[in-house]
Amino acid sequence: MTAENTRSKARKDGGQSIPELDAQSADVKSHRRETLNALVGEQVLHALGEPGDLLKVQARPLWKGTYRVNVFVGANAACARIANSYFVVTDGDGNVLKASPSITRCY
What we know:
Distance between the termini: 71 Å
Structural class: alpha+beta
Number of helices: 2
Helix content: 25-40%
Oligomer: single chain
Number of strands: 4
Order of helices and strands: HHEEEE
Shape: globular
Radius of gyration: 21 Å
């Protein structure tokens, strides 16, 4: 049996090729990153309170465990402004440990 025959049989048997595994791994990493970003944003919003004209909370990772969180408000996207902005330090699970400036309840 040649190497070519072995590869063909492995794929026919339902085995995954390396590119498919890489794509799944990338999807899992992307999903984890998006989930952590959303979690960090939700925690900031919970501590801050929800402004009446909230448009979006954006949590952007800067480096490991550190985020920039911006709270956008306005009637619509065309007149949006950043009402609050924080540098946030988190643990590995996305729990907020420290924020600068400190988050105080405003709404």
